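Translate sequence into structure tokens.
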Amino acid sequence: GAITVTPGGGTPPYTYLWSPGGMTSQNLSGLTANDYILTVTDAHGCTRVGDNFVTQPSLPLNVQLTVTNIRCWNYNTGAINTSVTGGTPAYTYHWDNGNLNANLSNLTAGQYCVTVTDAHGCTTVSCAQITQPDEWHPCFNKCAAVCQGDTVQYCVCKTLEGDYRIGYRNGYLSSFEWTITGGTLLYGCCDTCITVIWNHCATGTICVTEIRHDPPYDGCRSTTCCTIQLNPVPTPLITGPLTVWADSTNTTYTTTWSSCYLYSWSVVGGTVVSGQGTNSIEVHWSDCQNCSLGTVKVCVTDACLPTLCCGCTSIDITILAKNSANLQGYVTYANANSSYNLPLNGVVIQLLNSMGNVVGVSTTGPNFGNGLGTPGFYSFSNVPAGAYTMHITFNGTWGGVNATDALLIELYTVNPIGHPLAPLPLMAADVTADMVVNATDALWVKLRTVGMLTYFPAGNWVFNSGIINIPSVGITTYPIGALCFGDVNASYIPQGMKEGSSLNVIDDGIMNIPVNESFNYTVRSSKSAELGAMTLFFGYDQSRFEVQNVSTSLDGLKYKVDNSRIAVAWSNTKPLTLNSNDPILTLQLKAKEAISQPSQIFTINSGSEVADATAMVLDNFDLKMSSVVTLNGGKEFSIYNYPNPFQNTTDIVYTIPEQGHVKLVVTNMFGTVLSTLVDAEQVAGSYQVKVDPSVINLNSGVYLYKIVVDGVTTSFNKTSKMLFTR
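Result follows.
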């Protein structure tokens, strides 16, 4: 306790005397409960006596802790309640886990201490221990890796009290809950045993929760989980013919190979004659009177995994009776060049009887029927004797028309006797499907060549099927030819291009062009020729050039400019006579940016060709096109030659930014002047000078060309190398 004194009145200074104890200080502290008498004396000896009482609580501060222990292992159901006596209310609480409440709940096992403080700051500390039962877990009988797709039974482990299938603890029966990920629970969701089918995942998880019913643990739960490694099952794929002849040549069937795999084959309707235990077998199909379906099956075991996962697959085989009546053949593209008579897969053939009814459907493909796996093969089995026709459809990529095909149609239209067409090309010529081949068909061909049309009324494919007479015995072989509609000269290659000549670009010198202004650009003939048809596909960089117009004197020429591509198609029964260097096309162009070095504007793309008046493709006809360079308006000095190296002639192109005297010479490597090309006053601008080695007597080798410009305000000079080769 403590006493604080505040004197007043009298004459300071004051003196103090306390009783009991004889203390002489003004204030007292650290006192026990008692009655303390104070005598105060001032400077004149006047005194005053006061009586002061220091009290204390009737009882000391004390806290009692009531503990609720945990009934189930690893639960948080513990609790502690406090009861405080003595001291001076109100009380505050501070637990060692940071909680400030009087009572605690939801506690796990462990020791907890609380500090209680009363209104006067008196404190007391008390601790309690929360206990729990011994640790326990359920378990199940296996956790080993399995194969994806396996069906597996899992059971809880055997206990000390009895069989794991009964699940007794201390004479009471536990209950169980199971959860599965990566698989499907088939049976026994709440039993001691369950059955699981595992999915095709890398891993799965199985968990079991045991709910105990033995006192005092009734209702207590504990869960155990296990990750199951799910090993992949081999997925073999069998390749080989799906239709075979009975008692004929052995057929081969193959599946995926791996050094880890063990193979087991089985065959229904035939015999494995070789290859058992490998990834490839040969099968001899048994002779039969009423043949129908056979089967080839392979089971593959992965011996590199301890689970020895095994996967099987099978294919059904159509077995054709030996020497039974049958129709078969190949569908090929009827290219005029037999080297390109490629088989077509995916052609759907409907066989129609004389009443027009469908008696069978066959689709061409490499796995169909003849035992060799040859593409384009089709087959019909057990076809009764009689006359049949075919309805054939195909969704293959269409292609192959150009102006040469249009010329053939025009020639046939004018003189069908002098320019006859074979039956299948004649069918391909009727692109309008009006049963007449004429100039309209030729126009449609040219329009589709350049992309102004995207379809033919007749469709995309035509086939040469007719009436097929099937005898009562033997095999009828009927080959089917195919053409794309419009491919009258039968030169399309189904891999995506027209068989034709290869046109090349011959450089036609350097052309100076403006920037952002229209200019005319001429494509010329490289040689003399008589043309009846011309198909051109030019590519160009549309970020650098704009094509504004295509002009020509050729009657009936069709063209389209689209997406960095110019397509041109022309044909006429009156041939165009060309001399070398004659213009063929004139294009109105615009350069979008400066071109500092000579560059070709166009490339000639595949599919381009020219033909003579009889529609024969010309193999050695090329196009002359100039390289271009932009005028820089006299803004900077530059000089270069093109081409370099050169074999015939080269052009020296130079630009001077202001008027001045220009001297341009050719020298040898020692500086000896061999020819003076320019020695004159010139205004600002760009100039081009041709160098002819035969004129200035140059031999093969390296030479220099030097320019000196004495301008109005400044001078320029530069020396460069050029290489002449024969």
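Note: The chain is about 5% helix and 45% strand.
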